[in-house]
Amino acid sequence: MALDITPAVLAYVPPDAPLEQFEPARDRAFFADPNKTSLLAGASSAEDLTPYIGTELKGIQVSQLTDAQRDELALLRGVVFFRDQDITLELQHALAAHYGKQDRDPNQQDPRHVTILGHDFNIRAKDQAGAAYHGDHSYEVNPPSYTLLRMIRTPESGGDTIFTSQVALFDKLSPTFQKTFEGLYGIHSSQKSYLASINGGGKPHRAPIVTEHPLVRTHPVTHLKSLNYNPLFVTGIKGLNDKESFHILNFLYDHLHAADDLTVRWKWTPGSIAFWDNRAVVHRAVPGGYDPSTREGKRTAVFGERPFFDPSTSESLTERKERLGKERLNVEGKLNGKVVNGAHLNGNQMLDFDKLNVV
């Protein structure tokens, strides 16, 4: 029923025109100090929750961030978490505006934010896609870049959100698969969510859209390669027949769901916040086992650039680590026995490579 073409679907006329592609303002991360000095100095601690993704900043209020700290926030690892925040909805809207033009999910009723509610359905039931991994409405010509979710109330247990690094997902592929996927385009579609919305009583304000985006994308700021895979909205691979697409998408599904080492699971508490980069992260809510009325959050997001892949300017995570390692050895070798900032260096001393801004 949820995905059927019912009389209600046939009779419905969305009120808004399709979105047109545009060039967003320069990403705020370009204005940030790469060392994130201001942001980290304002926090009492910064804890990396896993080796690949997720940092919790403590002792700092998002509502009080300076513009410099807001810019530096955009450079942290995929998703950043905060607890016990005092930010209001109006300040949340203002924070979103700092990063760009606020986008609007096709099913979003308030033009400035989405209200996130709890769910108690069986994720294994037919047509229950609400708990699937996804990046927020990746089918748009300008999918979101930054998203902030602030939880107002949360259950004592349950309702967690899982975030996985698509940069690390790409990096863990074999070099052969990496090269193969770099030439492919995923077909992103909102058709299923459109049908489910209308058949569930919703009133989406835009018609469904089908868009082609590269399966591997280049991050415009970090220039890291990442998968651009979204199991909730990617329905096929451009240029491949159904069976070929089926096998590739099944592989990517298994690859994603086996990525426990590339994933962080966040337990929400009232007043907690997650801020993440949709271009490099997919996420999923974990429903079931709690009273849905005890979970409510407000989500804001901003438009990003149209996804692109530029092999001449991008590199994988491993390639970057190897390049920086070689450059580190080269710089340390040249500075061995020389004076840096008034101090003599020798082969037994470690140079703080990051402070040299060699990237």
UniProtKB/TrEMBL annotation:
SUPFAM superfamilies: Clavaminate synthase-like (SSF51197)
Cofactor(s) this protein requires: Fe(2+)
Domain TauD/TfdA-like: start-end pairs: 46-300
Key words of the record: Dioxygenase, Iron, Metal-binding, Oxidoreductase
Source taxon at top rank: Eukaryota
GO CC, alphabetical: cytoplasm
Transmembrane domains' residue ranges: none
GO MF terms, alphabetically ordered: 2-oxoglutarate-dependent dioxygenase activity; metal ion binding
Similarity-based family: Belongs to the TfdA dioxygenase family.
Database matches in PANTHER family: ALPHA-KETOGLUTARATE-DEPENDENT SULFONATE DIOXYGENASE (PTHR30468), ALPHA-KETOGLUTARATE-DEPENDENT SULFONATE DIOXYGENASE-RELATED (PTHR30468:SF31)
Stated name of the protein: TauD/TfdA-like domain-containing protein
Organism: Phialocephala subalpina
Lineage: Eukaryota, Fungi, Dikarya, Ascomycota, Pezizomycotina
